Each structure stands twice: as C-alpha cells, then as structure tokens.
Amino acid sequence: MLVYKKKDIPPDPVFPTDLEQLGFFINDEDKIRQIANPDAGFKFKVNANERWNDVRRNAYHECIRRIVISRLEEVGLSTLRLPLGSQPNDKHVPILVSSNLPTATRITLILGSPDQDLGIWTYRSMAEQGINRGSMVEITKEILTNKPDTAMIIANMGQLVYHCGSGQAMSQLTWFALPVETAAHPPARQTWRNLIPRNGNWREHVTCIFEDVLAPESGMVNPEAKIDIIGVEEGGLGAVEYLVENWPTWKPSISGICFSRPQHQKHNLTLDSTDDDDDDDDTVPEPGSFAHFISTRSRAYVLSDKPLEWPVPGTLQHGCNTYSGNEPVNHEDVIVSSWQSMLQWFDKVYADPSYEEVEFVIEERVEDDEGWEKWRRGEIDAVDDMRKLAVVDGEA
C-alpha cells in the first residue's frame, strides 16, 4: 500500500477574489473578458486537476457576486436576514428587499433557481450578454425606476448552507470549493451546525418568506398589497406547493404568477391528487380554487425556438397557458429573455382584477413514418415487429 506524507501532496490551490488579478476585466459591453485575450471569456478547464478548476471558478464567481450585490444595492435593494431578527453572528440567509416594502401597493417576489446565487439569473448569460443582463440588476432597475408603487423581494434559493467559519450562507458549489488541508482532501463534512433555522432547504425558504415577510401580521408589508410572483424552475414549484396548501389565506393577495421553465405538474395544483393522476386531464378547475387561479391568472414560459410569447404545448401538463421563452437551448436562460414580457402581463392582470386568460391547448406535432399512429390505432404490434426484425437479422 502506498502512503503519501503530507509534504508530498500538492497544497490546496488559492486564487485571489479580484478580477484583475485573475486575469479578467469588464469591457464596454458589460461583459467579463480575459485581459490577455479580450475576445475570450472565462474558461473553466485550465488545469488537468479538477480541484484547481473548481477553486478558480469559485474565486471568479465570488468576484461576480460582489459586483452584482453592489449594483443591486445601488439601485435600491438592501439585505434582510432570515429568520427575522437574526443578528450578523447568527445562522441566517440573506435576501434582498426594497425600502418601499412597507408602503408599496404591489410587490414583485422573485423565487429564483436553487442552482444560482443571490441576485443572479445565470452565469452563462452574464458571460454572453453582460453582467446586468444575466443578473437581476436590469429587472430591479425596471421595477424600482418605472413602477414607484411596486416593491421587490429577491429570495435566496441557492445559498442555504451556513459556513460557521466565515459566518455566511453559501451554495453547495461554493462549499465544495472552500479551503481544505491539501488538494487531495475531501470537502468539509456538513452537519446540523450548517443548517439555517427555518431555511434548511428551498422549500423551507419559500415558506419562511411567505410567513415571516409577506404575511400581513409580520409588519413588513402593506396588508393590502397585491403580490406578483416570478418562479424560476424549482422556485415556481416551491410557490405552487406552498400556496396549494394555504390558498384560502393567500387568495386575496396574489395577483398573478409567471413560471420560467415550470417544474410543477397539473396534479400539484390540488391537495387531493397524486403523482399517478393524469396530467393531461382537461377537467375544468372549480372556480375559486388554486387550480382555477393557475389556469386563469398564471402563465408559463418554456424552451422554444418560436418568437417570445408564441403559444406552445404545455397547458395540459402545467395547468396554465404556456408560451415560448424565445430560448431554444439553455433552459436557465429562458427567464433572461422573458422577464420583460412577464412584467407587462403582471401590469395587465393587476389593472383588471377580473381578468382571466382564455385557456388554449396546443397539440405537439410528432413527425415520424406513421408508425406511431398505426401502433396507436392497434394496426401494428411493436413486440411482434421486434420479433420479426430479430428473425430477419438472424437469417442475415
């Protein structure tokens, strides 16, 4: 058995959390580019050792996180620690809220993806379209500048692991890049000490925001305020799972919901359904129910190469009208191309409390050699066909 002494093992890599020292700069298009090659952006694999690549990427992401939070604070957001009342040295998770939260007549709640850091849509979009575009800076500017009666809450769905040493919440990806004894050592083990009270996962985090921040008795918001919800991937699922269980309480307050790449299914919209229920069921929801609200005052944006807002299949699956997000490849970029459409639609439904979307169903076209249709009509038997093919192959 080979035994390596500590002095023979490579030390854990260390990279500065400074863009210039890492070899990058921000160009005139707000994109981060390499100083040595201004036409090239960040490249992940620069070393055969994955540990080097992971730690370097985290240092690069930390630079971006600081820039994004700084810009969000400049346009009017501030940090609120959850659970409420947490002190800086307590285990907590930061979210971002606007100063007009107690008085605003409208509130936009953004429940982002658990795969991303606070205030960030996607790092890929920042590389391709610029920092403001790939983060929540642009949508924050749009709302706080042009909608003075609207407040903002940005949830922190991805940074729910508390690191006691640094006194901050972080993502799993950041946790795995924390310093260790040598480059060969595994990441630090997580225990109960790293759990944040009432925010141990993204489902608990959604519940905490509704019950500690948005609830009228919290004193944090205008009790008469109407709430618009943007749910990105699991963020939307978290809103659905919470609201379906508490709909009588929240029905007067929720104005509309928009989903980006929704993760919920139609059976999630009722309490008495199961995973085995048919999500293609076209039964009309009972008026006043949560499922009826989703079908009439919610909409979803999904991957599609069609123009933005083009009706696409998905209504029977998600229980609400489904539109193209004008993004054909990268699912996390759907929100980047569709949030402006969402805000325009929120204005429409807020202006008319009786407004209801007319449900449409778009059938997905399946192009094949008519084999599927013949099988569906019972004209062919797939098992027999496979047996015949096997015989033919054997004879050959």
From TrEMBL:
This is Arb2 domain-containing protein. One of its GO terms (cellular component) is nucleus. It holds the Pfam family Arb2. InterPro entries: Arb2, Arb2_dom. Residues 269-289 are annotated as: Disordered. The lineage of its organism: Eukaryota, Fungi, Dikarya, Ascomycota, Pezizomycotina. It comes from Talaromyces pinophilus. Residues 273-284 have a biased composition (Acidic residues). It comes from the Eukaryota. GO terms for molecular function: siRNA binding. Residues 15-308 form the Arb2 domain. One of its GO terms (biological process) is regulatory ncRNA-mediated heterochromatin formation.
